[in-house]
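Checked the freezer inventory, then went back to the computational side. Two predictions to log before the end of the day. The first one is the construct we discussed on Monday; recording sequence and tokens without edits.
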Amino acid sequence: MSVASLLWRFPSVLMAWRNLGRNRLRTALAALGIVIGVVAICSLGMATVAIEQQATAQLGDLTNEVTVSSGPDSETEGVTEEQVEEMRAIVTDAQVIPQKTNGTTLEARNGREARVSVTGVTDASALYDLTTGPAPERLQSGALISNGTAERLGLESGDPVEYDGRIYRIRGFIESEHSFGFGGDLVIPVSGLADQRHYDTVTIIAADGDAAGRIGDRLDTRFNTEEDEELRVSTFGNRAQVGGFLDTLSLALLGIGGISLVVASVAILNVMLMSTVERRGEIGVLRAVGIRRGEVLRMILTEATLLGALGGLVGALVSLATGMVLFHVITGDATGALGWASSRYLVYGFGFAVAASVLSGVYPAWKAANESPVEALRG
């Protein structure tokens, strides 16, 4: 059965379809407004999902960490060995990893230089992921260097790097750089920073964000009072807090996109009003030959519905392409846009477009259906 024969079964739908085709420019402009609104809503929603997935992946390794450093009321410049041992006695269900840090400039054989953060640590496997193979659980010789720094300096596995007059052979390359304010990371045995008496930071890795919060509270209670802060204990919050923030961000962005669709709805209302005014005589003839008010009402509402469906469908397709580009840029995986968490915004955008169009057509349809045929024919 063809579309034309199907439409013949529904006269009001057929007339609405013909009316939309009689002024294609006006129909296209009205549909364009809906497309813009749908793309705004869907793209912002999908971008929020991509940001949430990327943030969860990146913060997942931080939310279960507690960082301890010397507090403003401490008598020592750093965390002492005694304090580290006391932490280990208090925290029996998590790893306690003390670190000493410094900075230096590495110089390669080709003359290139790079500023790096130097970290002295024993249990490197708990803090670093390497590009190939696991990091050593007890780093007692050799060094690890961030992959980006190694590429800039042209360093390969086994090449020597010098720090404080000592030579270390590179044993592995760190996937991502952790340092702030430096160009990369150089990780060496803690004995390489033996001149520094105390530890700069202590990282405690718990099972999850909630456990990290409880450990932070216990350490804060043990070492600090309301007046004195001997140790500064920092946590990064749990994933629920991160998710709550991103949900708020998502609602804000959807609100901005919704404004675009409301503007598009006003444009549809204007188009439908103009259409009914231009066809006032035609509607008067229809009423004069016996077409009932309900038929006229359905015809105008069907026009608005078709406009919303057409604009919503095109807007959803454009949004899907835009979402795949956003996912590719933010997460590196364009197919993430096809997941329900992201693609549900296409359904929301389409449904919102149809609903807004129908609501925009209610007043013009009511006005056209209730006008007297005699007054309509007089113009």
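The second is the one RB wanted added to the comparison set:
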Amino acid sequence: MQFLYSGITSGSIYALIAIGFNIIYNTTGIINFAQGEFVMLGGMFIYSLLYMMNVPFIFAFPVALFGAFVLGVLFERVFIRYVKVKTELNLITITIAGSIILRGLAMLIWGRDTLLVESFIPAKTIQLYEGTITSDSVLVIGVSLFISFFLTIFFKKTKYGKAFRACYEDKIAASVCGINVRMVVMFSFGIAAFLGAVAGVAVSPITYVTYNDGVMSGLKGFSAAVMGGLGSFWGGIFGGIILGVSEAFFASVFPSGYKDAMAFLIILLILFFRPQGILGRKKATRV
């Protein structure tokens, strides 16, 4: 049971990152390989606000998330919008380049050392059935559940969320109906960056923060998105939890240093046997 609790904690983070991948995929049809860097930036922002500027957490938290949101919007405006030939290959290549640039800037600003972030809540160990869980892990799971619930309401009940869904179904039809598709795409990058920052802030007291955290976080979030089904909101959550639990049990059998290989093994299995993901759906092609 202890591995299950640990896996759910890390899986909750992967789920948030996977949802970010899916939001951008739904509005642009591309994979944003810079998504993991916003996880890193969320941790860096909260560290800077708390320990370099001495901002109280109650203010630092929303400021860090808002900063990531603005950076995500700027990322779309600078790297994506003005590309002349917007093929999937070109756009994906640009997101990889953007990822490298963000990582390099982070190294210049915050250095190569690991930055320690203390717990946001009093540290406690909670006894559960045949295992324990820390208060930091409870916070991570709680934040992930809250964000998932909030996004469900946003996409299903608000007109802005319905605009996102309309763009996913058919951008041309959405544009004809008066939806500003460019604006939706821009905000999709902002929301995805916001989600990455939430994950980065939530996990920073557990894993601490370094400038290259985004690489592995992004790959695991991508693996979770592929497993659940690219474009599927609940698929991202499902894929994240399954990936986190699988990693935890994998580490119980094999040396923990190999647990990162689990994400890539899952990608291969999904691509071989169910390319659309477990909860994904095949897209019909009109001829």
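For RB: The mean pLDDT is 83. Residues 128 and 137 are 13 Å apart (CA to CA). Let me know if you want it refolded.
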